[in-house]
Please model this.
Amino acid sequence: MAARVLTVAQDGTGDFCTVQEAIDVVALGNTCRTVIRVSPGVYKQPLYVPKTKNFITLAGLSPEDTVLTWHNTASKIDHHQASRLIGTGTFGCGSTIVEGEDFIAENITFENSAPEQGSGQAVAIRVTADRCAFYNCRFLGWQDTLYLHYGKQYLRDCYIEGSVDFIFGNSTALLEHCHIHCKSAGFITAQSRKSSQELTGYVFLRCVITGNGGTSYTYLGRPWGPFGRVVYAYTYMDACIKQAGWNNWGKTENERTACFYEYRCFGPGSCPLKRVTWARELIDEEAEQFLVHTFIDPDPGNPWLAQRMAIRIPFCA
Model:
C-alpha cells in the first residue's frame, strides 16, 4: 500500500500550518504509513501522537532547520491535551509525546526549551511505543531530555544533549553512531529495569561522548530501577566522564543488581581499571548479544527494523 503524504508549512503553502493539525487527521487504528513532511521552521507547540495512531513518519530536511519545541516542566504543564491523556509530572511534560507504534522521525529536532535553572525535569520527547526509529535527529534539553519509556527503539546518527539523567526510562533501545553531549555535571543515563527477567536496556554502539571542556564531571549512568542495564561498546569517551564511571544513586543495594557494562571503549574518559568494582568490562562472548540489531529486533520472521530502514529514504528525498 502506498504511503499517504501530508505537508506542513508555517507560511500556509502546505496542507497544514502546524504539525499537530497533521497528526490530528490520522485516524485512530491507522494501518497505512502516513508521512508528514515538515518544512523548515521553529514550531512552538506541544505535540501528541496518541495510542493507535500508528505508522506515522515525521520528516524534515535537516534537524538544524526543522525544530519542534515547547517548554513544559514536571511542575508546570501547558498542553492542549487533558492530563488524563498525557499524564502529569515528568511523564506528562514532554514537548513531544509519542504513544503510536511504528513511529519514524528523520531530520527533526525535538527540544524542551525550559531553562536549566529552576526547571527540573523537562522532557524533550517521551516515547511510549513499540518499534520506533529515529534517524539524524537532535534531542535538546537539560534534565530528562530523552524519555525512552517503553517499547523498542532504534536511534542512528542522532545528537542528544543534557545534564541530569538525560537518557532515561525502561525501553529496549539501541543507539548507533550517536553523539552524546554532556552540558554540565550529572548522569547520562537512568535506565529503570526492575527485574532480571526484563529484557530492557540501553546499548550505545559506536557512539561519541563529549562535554563542555571540563574534566571528570559526568557519570555514564545510575540505576533508576535496581536492575538498570546499560552497555557502551566501541564508544569514544572524552575527559568529561568521571573515572569511577557509574553511580549507585545513593543505594549500595543497587550495586548487587545493576548491569552496567563497557566493551572496547576508548578516549580519555575510558578508564576500565578505575571504574567502580560493581561495573565491568564485557568479554567478547558476553558482548555479542549487544552488538547486533537483534537486541531490539529479535524476531527473524518479522524484522521490523529492516523494514523501517528500507522505507525511510524515499520518504525524505
Summary: The radius of gyration is 19 Å. Confidence is low (pLDDT under 50) at residues 313-317. The chain has five helices and 24 strands.
